[in-house]
Automatic annotation (TrEMBL):
<dbReference type="InterPro" id="IPR017941">
    <property type="entry name" value="Rieske_2Fe-2S"/>
</dbReference>
<dbReference type="InterPro" id="IPR044043">
    <property type="entry name" value="VanA_C_cat"/>
</dbReference>
<dbReference type="Pfam" id="PF19112">
    <property type="entry name" value="VanA_C"/>
</dbReference>
<feature type="domain" description="Rieske">
    <location>
        <begin position="29"/>
        <end position="132"/>
    </location>
</feature>
<keyword id="KW-0411">Iron-sulfur</keyword>
<keyword id="KW-0001">2Fe-2S</keyword>
<dbReference type="InterPro" id="IPR050584">
    <property type="entry name" value="Cholesterol_7-desaturase"/>
</dbReference>
<keyword id="KW-0479">Metal-binding</keyword>
<keyword id="KW-0560">Oxidoreductase</keyword>
<keyword id="KW-0408">Iron</keyword>
<dbReference type="InterPro" id="IPR036922">
    <property type="entry name" value="Rieske_2Fe-2S_sf"/>
</dbReference>
<dbReference type="Pfam" id="PF00355">
    <property type="entry name" value="Rieske"/>
</dbReference>
<protein>
    <submittedName>
        <fullName>Rieske 2Fe-2S domain-containing protein</fullName>
    </submittedName>
</protein>
Amino acid sequence: MNTATATATAAPTAADVDKLLERGLYDLWYPICPSHFVKERPVSLRRLGYKIAVWRDATGAVHALEDHCPHRGAPLSMGVNLGDRLACPYHGVEVRCDGTVTKVPASPGCTLEGSRAARSFHVVEAAESIWLYNSREYVETPPPLKLPEEISGPDWSSFLCYVEWRGDYRYVADNVMDPMHGSFVHKQSHSMSEGDISAKFKLRKTDTGFMFEKDGQRDVNFDWAEWADTGTQWMRLAIPYPKTGGPGGSFTVIGSYTPVSPQLSVVFFWRCRKVSGWQRDVWRFLYRNRLEERHWVVLEQDRVMLETMEPDANQREHLYEHDVGLSRLRKTMQNLALKQLTAK
């Protein structure tokens, strides 16, 4: 076997796996920004290793192209919105939302016209957010976006909390898959001050992923965390509320996290309760006027903790029983990355 063949067939290394995970797995839906970020004028976002131009047409539909004109690389986001296409500000080249160059004003009929020369992205709007399908190759029709019922079903009411944190998005996922930190980092919280500070944990497989939960303690504190893959990866946890928190039972949090770079992550948390009718109105009023500020305090505690950890903190750990959940999460993600690299 010659050197070129040997290189082409070499198995992916641990560094290859980490590089893919750092950028974001392919063929998954990711939230990239809150809906209100995108208006008629194109905006430029760095997500998943790309610089992306996102805009709305006259009907309000959202479109996305790599923010790179196929002619000379100028930012399409600085151009003119022509509905389903953008006109580059540099030479007027028009690029349709599917990546096809429809017009080259300076050279009509040139070979660039009619070619699918730009990278395009499928985007949908759901749960107050814009979601992008990170396909490895262009696909005509992406798989449907399947979200948990808390942010897609009619029986739930939710509020989107969007933050940008300095650091790798995987640290955010690790933090959520660590219920025990709630009893320490958030011990002064109105909803996480109860329960034992020591606990036994167990892993439980689900149809879409797994749960990591305290054995013998439920609905007392941050007692369990769930990871799921439904074509988009999300996490779920529930915090019991005192009666002063209003109707709706436990307070459920759905989380999804998208990489910008190893130094920056965009973090989506939906705060949800199962309520309807007048109870929905009461819950939403209480949240906006009384509870939201308290939840921002809790989130700020997490931000400070994660942003002050060293970038290589997860390379210098001594894990114990409470960390089985995050170990499983990391191994699951590594296996998914290895599968994608091997298929490539």
